[in-house]
Amino acid sequence: MSRVPGDARGPAWWLALLVCKPLLLLGRRADWRRTERLPGSGGAVLAANHVSQADPLFLGEMILAQGRTPRFMAKASLFHSRAVGWWFRSAGHVEVDRSDGRSGIRAAVEAVERGALLVVYPEGSITKRPDGRLMTLRSGAVRIALETSAPLIPVAQWGVQAIVPAYERRVVVGRRRPVTLLVGDPVPLEDLRELPRATAVTVGVQRLQDTLADMVDQLADEHAR
């Protein structure tokens, strides 16, 4: 597990910016909303919906532009190849072994306690819904937020799938397409901290589900119009 602190960047992030930023500028028209809701410092958990394999590029761009450095929870296999693994470790992302979920949560908790802005995709994968909207959420993001007392911030995104379609190995080129990212208010969890942990997690996940689903539906309906 990487122990890169808080918002430290280093060569991995500057390399990513150098390579990816020009491509993003060519492919998308950015519509970033309520970015002031991102905390300026300290640990936090960002829970985002997942519509394309390229989501981290667009979400990471928005977070970096606010002066923060995102740390993504990522599956262990990405850390094991030579070049890709070097980048993930150097960038301070959090390795998750899906066969041992407890260790993944523990590593994420430690990262947030060191001040990381941790991005979690609580659906667990790119959405498999034909309409691209939110699937049922897993509990990891809520569990991390409860254990660390860090804010749990929902982030809805829409439009990336028009550039890099989900589960397809192609990029749609020809014109710049709108990509909207909407940052929500923190999901209230304070009143749950005195409840039994299983109850607190269940209630917290439902609150996140309802909030994020409403945000995603709002953006999807706007883009459809």
Walk me through the structure:
- The protein has about 220 residues and is an alpha/beta fold.
- Helices cover about 40% and strands about 15% of the residues.
- It contains six helices and seven strands.
- The protein has a seven-stranded mixed beta sheet, with helices on both faces.
- β3, α3 and β4 form a beta-alpha-beta unit.
- α4 packs across α5 and α5 packs across α6.
- The chain is globular, with a radius of gyration of 17 Å.
- The termini are far apart.
- About 40% of the residues are buried.
Shape: globular
Number of strands: 7
Mean pLDDT, all residues: 89
- Oligomeric state of the chains present here: single chain
Keywords:
single chain, 225 residues, alpha/beta, seven-stranded mixed β-sheet, 39% helix, 17% strand
What is the topological layout?
Blueprint: H1 11-27, E1 28-33, E2 44-48, H2 55-65, E3 70-75, H3 82-90, E4 94-96, H4 101-113, E5 117-120, H5 140-148, E6 152-158, E7 177-183, H6 197-224
Parallel strand pairs: 1-7, 2-5, 2-6, 3-4, 3-5
Antiparallel strand pairs: 6-7
Helix pairs in contact: 4-5, 5-6
Quick gist of this model?
The chain is of the alpha/beta class and 225 residues long.
